[in-house]
Amino acid sequence: MSGASAPGKFILFGEHAVVFGKPAFALAIDRRLTVTVAEAERTELNGKPFGAAGNSPYVEECLRRVEPQGHLRLETRSTIPAGSGLGSSAAAAIATLAALDRQGRLREEDDLARAGFEVELAVQGRASPLDTSTVTHGSGILVSPERLSGHLWEVRRGEKVWNLHHRSIPEADFVVGFTGISAATGPLVAMVHERAAREPKVREAIEEIGELTLAGVDALQHERFEEVGELMERNHALLTLLGVGHERLDALLRAVKPYALGAKLTGAGGGGSIVALTEKPDKAAEAIRAAGGTPIPVRLSREGVRRHG
Ligand code: MEV
User: Fold this and answer.
1) Which of 107, 117, 145, 112 is nearest to 20 (CA)?
2) What is the pLDDT of residues 141-177, one digit of tens each?
3) Which residues pair with 26 in a beta bridge?
4) Distance (Å, rounded) from C-alpha 187 to C-alpha 170?
5) Which parts of the chain fold into alpha helices (H)?
6) How many angstroms separate the first and last alpha carbons of the chain?
7) In angstroms, what is the span from residue 70 Cα to ligand 1's centroid?
8) Could you point out which of 39, 142, 199, 202 has its C-alpha 20 to 30 Å from the C-alpha of 53?
9) Whose CA is nearest to atom 8 of ligand 1?
10) Rounded CA separation 161/169 (Å)
């Protein structure tokens, strides 16, 4: 038996814009998804045959790509709520690839992160390497078209170049609030792509998100938390302009506002979750619950993928 686990993540700045090659920033969290692999009579996933309804398309895509010899039984366990925008798909792709990698071909972080990105692309149609790189490496990951300090690796796709950089985790408290509405990432990314092709104001918003991401990461690293909060609010307004907002997200943002330095949707949107930067995490969590959301306590984590057995 072998296995691997990978953390979840949340995006602090730059989701969607990063698919267009703009800067973005994500942080790994202390919730994890674990995959174990054992020899079996037939290939199955959590007791169901390969291809059965309800199986993770990310795990199945990994199996399709790795083409293991013989049949395997895969079991997944997770403390990352699925569909909440906290990276359960990226964690599933990275943990599955690492667990299936018996020859050690994906032992280097960059090879594993690139392979995970290909899995996300195959399932979603369009994607950036932000989520898969963050859950591979842990800590904070800043993506940008330029090479900056703390450079880890680059990922290329056509004309787009994403440079992935390590950033240390800040001394700050974040609270996530899940709306309970899970929206698939692929169609949201495709919708933003179509709107960007038609509407100049959407293209301008994407540019501005890229710029505010770099300002936000600088503010975070220098502990200018009020500025971070203001930039989170602006990022949310721009994401709403892209069309990925939702009234339930806005209700949670209103509820958390008295207790937060700033808050925004995190991940693909269309539902999913908000993240708040707060000095009063308990009060922020209570406010999320009172507004009908599910508070998800998250702690930042240095740890990326971990292999067992
Ligand atoms: C989803 O967590 C983040 C998006 O930017 C898509 C991606 O980067 O692949 C919406």
Assistant:
1) 145
2) 999 999 999 999 999 999 899 999 999 999 999 999 9
3) 11, 141
4) 33
5) 57-66, 88-100, 109-124, 130-137, 185-198, 200-221, 225-242, 247-256, 281-290
6) 7
7) 34
8) 39
9) 128
10) 24
